[in-house]
Amino acid sequence: MSALPWYEDVSPGRGTLPPRAWYARSDAPVLSLNGDWAFRLSPTADAEDESFTAPDFDAGGWGTIAVPGHWVLQGKQGEAPGGYGGPAYTNVRYPFPVDPPRVPTENPTGDHLRRFDLPADWPAAGGAVLRLDGVESCASRRRASWSTRRSSSRSGSPTRDRARSW
């Protein structure tokens, strides 16, 4: 059994805002985080530690993927398309044993890392909402970064309301 908090979590979606329409207009400031993100693929969910959440972590050995994008369809490891694997859910059958709520030991896990600073003109009062469109399984804020390991959302768009302290 893993000691990692997201591995056996029975309350996916904890800490997220209720789902809402993506097309709703707002006058709130927006900062797009689209672009190249550092990425690491691990063979299992507990193969790596959380050292990458440290502010001085060097992700120089990691690959780079485009966000938005589907990491299993982007190449790097083998330099071929789909170098990070292939889609798990197809129209054939599950590629792993179905034994809820247990997660298979072989469960490829991707860590995404993106560091950013809020613009100087960002409002100091209030908080900020981080919207993750297209998260297929889990996402979690870890200090000054996010990892793709917590808060499963069926809608694929977990939204978090956090104070300004990124």
TrEMBL record:
Entries under Gene3D superfamilies matching the protein: Galactose-binding domain-like (2.60.120.260)
Compositionally biased intervals (Low complexity): 145-158
Pfam families: Glyco_hydro_2_N
Assigned GO CC terms: beta-galactosidase complex
Catalysed conversion reaction: Hydrolysis of terminal non-reducing beta-D-galactose residues in beta-D-galactosides
EC number(s) per entry: 3.2.1.23
Source species, domain of life: Bacteria
GO biological process: lactose catabolic process
Annotated spans, Disordered: 138-166
Keywords recorded for this protein, A-Z: Glycosidase, Hydrolase
Residue ranges annotated for the Glycosyl hydrolases family 2 sugar binding domain, each copy included: 32-139
Coiled-coil intervals, chain numbering: none
Gene Ontology MF annotations: beta-galactosidase activity
Family: Belongs to the glycosyl hydrolase 2 family.
Protein name: beta-galactosidase
